[in-house]
């Protein structure tokens, strides 16, 4: 257990010498701030004396000058200094109370330098001094004096103004630090406010003098280390240098909004023009002032202000408007303070321009079967894109209600979160739809849609507290025959979650909207859930069971969000796992309830725990909880979806499923329509769990959500017992960098284990966080298996004796070990073989049993692993033998399956598809023959089996050449089913013809293939070893064109990642880095590129560790195979000789 951290330095001297850095587990790192801060105290004293003397002389001179000026110019005028009229009187700069302020008249912002920002109160005080007490006749000044009863006519001086700005800056730092500590459930430290303003100014002046002296010395160093300097500035909290320079009028230097005000209600009127993309809008925000302030800040991005009006109790308030684009903030600076409890109303008229960038309010384009294009408008606000449609407090913990009105053409459909209240004629033949006031919710859940050419089908729920209207909207030519499954699944999911959470769905309707253009799978907007069309529409005759399961999981995920995320929302995005992790976990429980014959929970281990452990074993991984407020898009990844779901599953199993359900019900009731942090939930789970052990739920959750990565434990047999020891962070990479990243983190580990002698259950022990090792006695000397059920989020390295016994058991009686446990053994041994911890021969020995395997999930894992290995040994001299090995382990299962006989269960159907795909990839003759026959049947009669159709089309392209490719491309252009289009893309990319490869890539650029499908094109190309070089060459030569279409973020990086991940040599890595060196990616794209580089480095490491070792193993296997073949042939010949006699 770590010792308590020392207290932070509090003295003025300490803060002069050191800067406060990052905080890790309560320990704050203080470092020397800059070289010039560690100079001699004598020199510092001399400078302080000089500055003090200078200030005194300046004050004396200023007083004498003022006295003489008053004598010479008693009326306040001067022939020497000409003061601008707008500074002498507030009348010329005051808002006309009878009209709105129009920015077309006064400009976008009042951007003055810091030294010229003078409040109205300060101006009045100067006028009073100059006029020797004469009263200024300003109507607005009188109004403001009357409204501020606490001031009694007193004016603030310049020192108060400066002090206020200093206080604002300190408030930012204190609040940001407070937020970070709150996220982890830590208490806020007391703020030392004893330091006087004079001391702060003195220190600041001293530092400036010293910095000036060192400027020449540091200039060359700064030029060489620009990037390092930026990183240092970020670490010291100075992240917004650019904002400070561009937005000098705002004293709030943070991307987070201040907590001095919060929205109560938005009234939004929106008119999106689907012809030219122009949006005219007006929003009125009712705001509650939470603490005294002169500054109001909210978020806005790519919006153009037309006019604004601010009022309190019907009286208009005057404020200067400042626009800070780099911070996506709009601010108003008031002449007089707003007080706690004040209610103000902010009314803004503004315009914007819709784009096709899949963010904010954007265009979605549908190409109909008749070739006609129609445009609709839809929204995607998560995480911070609501500010692109309306000025708002765009953070999840600023919840409010929304009253939405949409102006549209008469032939269009408008939808929003709530039901339509009324429609009325507007003007010029337009219609204005007014929607009911929403429930209290976060801005990212607001949604609107204006649809052209859409239809819908509707049904009501029967088994919910009150009937809920469910509508599914889709383009009219895609609606018939594809909407029923999505609609039915949504209704059943609503009924399931109402029963599970024992809380009624809060709204009376929910819309499901299928969009052609959508960045994600779906988005859980409250009452208006948006989907990529392929994630919602399902055609029984044309789509496979794989697509059906995918759609069901996504729908259940989004309906789970209506409670986890919408009703109760995480306080900040650093704990987005409270939304996404829980929705990912609950989607499996929902589908398991709705479709029990799918056995969906048997896939949870592979699709969540094993899936997330791969990126979580990278050096570039991160903790589930993150304080990086500048890269929010990066939080929506495998860590927050799949790892978080695996951790939640582990905690639920520890607590007991019934207890866990009771805890969720209490949590949702307690924080309904509010925000929560992870600690809030874990404390409630702990209360319901009643664990009899030394590990608490909050401690375990904290370890797995705040620490990067996951543990590896080593298991070995000792005399009469089992020893678990050497807990360490698992990393794929090796070397000094890995050791540095590994750290000294520890996790409490719930270990369930099974032995051969105990076949009817598993026992559980805890590897405590403080323990070096744990031992338990056993009399059995047979095989041993830890982490049964794949529940614990860790990996296990066994000793050679235990591996030998597991290999033997799998070969002799693999069914004695459950399918999930078999999958886990394969996954862990494969991952460990990528390092020097386990020889790859152990993995290959374990793998030989799979010729008897019939479990779909295990085969899915194995086929992916073998394909990856094959891509890494393409240049080896034993590739053919390795492919023979794959054929040998799959042949028995392939021969047991019938192409014309569909599986009885979804899992059997999925197994068929996987095995046929592998067999055809390995060019097993019967498989390629059967697939091509089905392609010809589709060509002649249109008959298809949706489960095998993609395999048949791929074989058609491989054997049918250009003619087949053209025919399949024609089918793509007329396809209605999104799933069918995805299958066709897979077939088109299976060609070896360079001309056809370039054609499909050209179609990506000219719009024939939509932008959000381009990464899918590249992912399929990456699976075709014959096309990689051609595709990469084309991609590089048209890089800028793809950049324009895909942007500089995640979509573009995904394409590069698909093409680059198979690379496995130093030269290839250097070539890639050199090419991309001049290419700039946004933050979410850059992180993907870093992971791609790391993957290539791991490929290089794999080849160094395993290429020769695998070659030896394959040679021995080949020799065994040949020996066996000779023996069989000898026996066969012997029988013939005997029969001849």
From TrEMBL:
Membrane-related topology note: Single-pass type II membrane protein
Domain ERAP1-like C-terminal: 783-1080
Co-factor: note: Binds 1 zinc ion per subunit.
Residues annotated as domain Peptidase M1 membrane alanine aminopeptidase: 485-690
Principal location class: membrane
Region Disordered, residue ranges: 112-238
GO cellular component: cytoplasm; extracellular space; membrane
Every Aminopeptidase N-like N-terminal domain range: 263-445
Site, Transition state stabilizer: residue positions: 641
Active site: 558
Listed GO MF terms: metalloaminopeptidase activity; peptide binding; zinc ion binding
Positions with biased composition (Acidic residues): 121-130, 142-167, 199-219
TM helices/strands, residue ranges: 47-72
One Pfam family named in its UniProt record: ERAP1_C
Biased composition (Basic and acidic residues): 168-179, 188-198
Family annotation (InterPro entries): Aminopeptidase_N-like_N, Aminopeptidase_N-like_N_sf, ERAP1-like_C_dom, M1_APN-typ, Peptidase_M1, Peptidase_M1_aminopeptidases, Peptidase_M1_dom, Peptidase_M4/M1_CTD_sf
Keyword Protease assigned: yes
Keywords from the named record: Glycoprotein, Hydrolase, Membrane, Metal-binding, Metalloprotease, Protease, Signal-anchor, Transmembrane, Transmembrane helix, Zinc
Binding site for Zn(2+): 557, 561, 580
UniProt GO BP: peptide catabolic process; proteolysis
Cofactor field: Zn(2+)
Cell compartment(s), UniProt: Membrane
Family the UniProt entry places it in: Belongs to the peptidase M1 family.
Listed name of the protein: Aminopeptidase
